[in-house]
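Quick review question:
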């Protein structure tokens, strides 16, 4: 809660329109959780097309649609509850053995209406 309170204060004080983040998901299970999580979130929390990104080193996704219930990391859950979007396929971080999910959180000053930001 202290992290979110601090981020909120910073965003308001500086007048930022968006908060950008990367969330790490362990690949200790061979990548099944990262794949299942991305597959689920891509149907419910995918950013509008103009905010999508493509990783330089994409994670190879498994075929596990609906067969593997994802475990949502607390950081990802917090961002999603705040209204963040997943902006594209996860990247593979070989050094950390993790999948990195790019997240974009529209802030109150962005002119967001009904889940979509206004374009500048």
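Suggested answer, residue by residue:
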């Amino acid at each position: 809660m202290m992290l979110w309170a601090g981020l909120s204060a910073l965003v308001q004080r500086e007048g930022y329109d968006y908060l950008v983040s990367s969330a790490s998901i362990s690949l200790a299970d061979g990548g099944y959780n990262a794949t299942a999580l991305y597959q689920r979130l891509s149907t419910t929390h995918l950013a509008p097309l103009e905010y999508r990104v493509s990783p330089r080193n994409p994670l190879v996704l498994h075929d596990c649609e609906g067969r593997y219930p994802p475990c949502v990391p607390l950081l990802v859950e917090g961002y999603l509850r705040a209204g963040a979007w997943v902006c594209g396929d996860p990247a593979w971080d070989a050094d950390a053995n993790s999948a990195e999910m790019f997240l974009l959180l529209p802030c109150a000053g962005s002119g967001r209406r009904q889940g979509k930001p206004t374009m500048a």
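Why it works: Residues 111-120 have pLDDT under 50 and may be disordered. The radius of gyration is 15 Å.
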